[in-house]
Structure to design on (60 residues):
């Protein structure tokens, strides 16, 4: 094996290992996430529950 072939084989092996480490690192690294801002009060008006025995206009 010549010196050139030896260095080419070393470079191929190193690049294969680097690509493998990169893909494994992508899967292992924690993902970025965005936290939702918690609202201080309920957004909108609160209505009392209606009678469950009467049918609504969207029922069947």
């Amino acid at each position: 094996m010549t010196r050139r072939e030896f260095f080419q084989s070393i470079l191929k092996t190193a690049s294969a290992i680097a690509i493998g480490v990169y893909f494994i690192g992508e899967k292992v690294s924690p993902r970025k996430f965005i936290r939702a801002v918690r609202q201080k009060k309920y957004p909108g008006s609160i209505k009392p529950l209606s009678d469950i025995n009467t049918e609504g206009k969207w029922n069947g």
In short: Residues 3-28 form the longest helix (26 residues). The chain has a mean pLDDT of 83. Residues 1-39 form one domain. The helical segments are 3-28.
